[in-house]
Design a protein that fits this description.
Length: 228
């Protein structure tokens, strides 16, 4: 007696169907500024973690973390200082290069330390260039407000992708007596929004908005999307 066989049909994949993009993922493709811009357009959030060494960077890349920040918090975490003001420029350049060697497919963001760009714009551009050349950074991050628009424009003209860090700025903590949230009053909120507009107009590739009310960040994002 022969067993009964049931015919089954399997749907053939549509050759014209496009695979849905899952977002920025260094395990699939190298992450670049264009990758993150696409993630923004398609409203796909992405992770960004701080990293100081090649071994940790390697594991974070394997875990699919697309953006790694080599932060001036290394002064606290590695060197044991009480704040971020004590991060030496050469030290951070060395750490940035190590992280990029460990995670070559991640976008690596270098944090420019205190007084590496504030005193003189030409020195700021040169130091940013060192992060790009010696540190192999993909972007550099500066703690700024609208008064730094000229410097950001000069870095952009030189080919340096700038991440403008606005809102709460840890390098200014001693001015206000510690690490505090920003934008809690209407006046301060409008100033941060104006800072964001000025940085984007100057050519900043990205914004990092720290410790501000969600309404402030939502307005910045809304204005960025409206501008295209």
């Amino acid at each position: 007696m022969q067993p009964i066989r049931h015919a089954t049909s399997q749907a053939k994949p549509d050759a014209n169907a496009r695979e849905v993009w899952q977002g920025a993922d260094p395990t699939i493709a190298t992450v670049t500024i264009r990758t993150l811009l696409r993630a923004m357009r398609e409203k796909k959030p992405f992770a960004a973690l701080t990293c100081y060494d090649a071994t940790t960077a390697r594991w974070l890349e394997r875990a699919g973390v697309p953006v790694l920040l080599v932060g001036d918090t290394a002064a606290e975490v590695i060197l044991g200082y009480p704040n971020t003001l004590h991060a030496p420029l050469d030290f951070l350049i060395t750490l940035t290069a190590a992280v990029k060697r460990g995670a070559p497919r991640c976008l690596v963001m270098a944090d420019m330390p205190f007084m590496s760009y504030q005193a003189n714009e030409d020195d700021g551009v040169r130091n940013a260039g060192r992060f790009m050349i010696e540190g192999n950074a993909d972007t550099v991050k500066l703690e700024v407000d609208a008064s730094f628009a000229s410097l950001v424009a000069k870095m952009t003209r030189a080919g340096v992708p700038v991440v403008a860090h606005i809102g709460s700025r840890p390098q200014h903590a001693k001015q206000v007596g510690g690490y505090l949230a920003a934008g809690k009053t209407a006046e301060d909120a409008m100033k941060i929004i104006a800072d964001a507009d000025a940085m984007l107009a100057a050519g900043a590739a990205m914004l990092l908005v720290e410790a501000t009310p969600i309404e402030v960040t939502e307005e910045i994002v809304r204005r960025r999307h409206a501008a295209g």
